[in-house]
Fold this protein.
Amino acid sequence: MTFTPHGKHLIDGQWVGGDRSFASDPAHGPAHDFAVGTPELVAQACAAADAAFDAFAATTRTDRAAFLDAIADEIEARADAIIEIGTQESGLPAARLNGERGRTTGQLRLFADHIRKGDYLDRRVDAALPDRQPAPRPELRVIQLPVGPVAVFGASNFPLAFSTAGGDTAAALAAGCPVVVKGHSAHPGTAEIVAEAVLAAILRTGMPAGVFALIQGGDRKVGEALVTDPRIKAVGFTGSLAGGRALFDLCAARPEPIPFFGELGSVNPMFVLPAAAARADEIGAGWAASLTMGAGQFCTNPGIAVVMDGPDADRLVAAARAALEQVAPQTMLTQGIAKAYREGVERMGRSNAVTAVATSPSEGRNAAPNLYETTADAFLGEDHLAEEVFGPLGLVVRAASGADMERIARGFPGQLTATLQTDAGDAELARRLLPLLARKAGRVLANGFPTGVEVADAMVHGGPYPASTNFGATSVGTLSIRRFLRPVCFQNLPDYMMPADLAG
Ligand code: NAP
């Protein structure tokens, strides 16, 4: 089945065109025209979301769960067409996108189950103490309520799982918040067909039409108008530090500031401790595989490996180099991301602080892997070496001692993940590093690689700035629903007005 996009926005259940259009820039296959988003269209979508809020917030958890399940079903019903246009637009292989589609529908169904169970409401009741001295205590009941309409920015690197009906959208809808999506211009056709699936689910389950909108991009004003619209109460974003920071600042400068949940990526350092370094060959090869997965375009890409200097470090570098030399250039998500990768490689190449281990030229929209190494002192002397280069670029930092490793760990800015390769013989150093890394990262893992983020109850995909703009939150897993809820305490409420979720 071939899907030909009509190129319109989805607002209040209607497909809406426009005067101006932009052409998609697929990695392969035909380009299509899409209507450019405008601040006026954003305002219409926000008004519809606001109008739908009361009714949507009042739906039962059972009905919202059925809606989420229906979106998952409608995505599955369009699976072949989604994969066809998704692979064309993103250049990602079909196998990867199929996995991402399963992850997307899995997320929707996980949130459906999560809200059916109701634990997320975090209900707490303090019984009244009428005889307490010196003053009686009233009855207090707290529950989590939806914050209001939420803006979601589609992410270039996850056209399905972090975009139109991805994790942010699933979490917000589960919470009872209408969603206005700003489509990413890297995959507008994929956004359109997924929006079509959401609309079908709205119609099937009788939800208010305003609960979901898709505004295509093509103009920076779209994102600005969306985060500054007074009806929007929170924002979910995955993307660059510069873009995320600009939008975060706009949210903070509003007359009514709102939370901006930006996931901005990191270098995800991996520390290879001395005893574990006996496995240097295996770790080096595994690191290279993680580094090049999806052309290195994962937020959890482990860009930096810190290794104790010596023969084991030499073996790790050799194993990584041998594995990277086997990796052919891969298509990147957009021309812009490919250009940013080339610039990152050039910056690394110009630095006197690093030595090139294996370099290969990247041309056009392709990225070839690159590997560099440096010492602890040189690394700590140049801040830019700890910055993310989005793509398959690795840097090995040779530490001279455990104290060096601690200095390096302390020096990192906030990270999504930090990894320890450790064996029993490393216990003392591992225990010293653990609290340092836990202070820096949202997820600390042992003896694995950070790419491949489980969608689960205990997952945290976030971390101190600049990994994210909100260290108290995660953008993956069921805890991510908390971003779109706020606690409301009901004091001494008579039974006849008690919300159903608080009764009993
Ligand atoms: P991006 O430039 O941050 O764009 C993400 C979204 O935000 C797009 O919809 C973009 O709109 C919008 N936006 C960005 N800056 C804005 C501004 N000042 N005002 C209003 N809207 C704004 O990210 P990207 O296009 O996905 O990729 C660019 C770079 O981001 C990559 O090279 C990579 O370094 C990084 N990145 C990191 C991650 C990660 O998880 N770490 C993921 C993806 C990308 P437009 O489309 O109109 O520009």
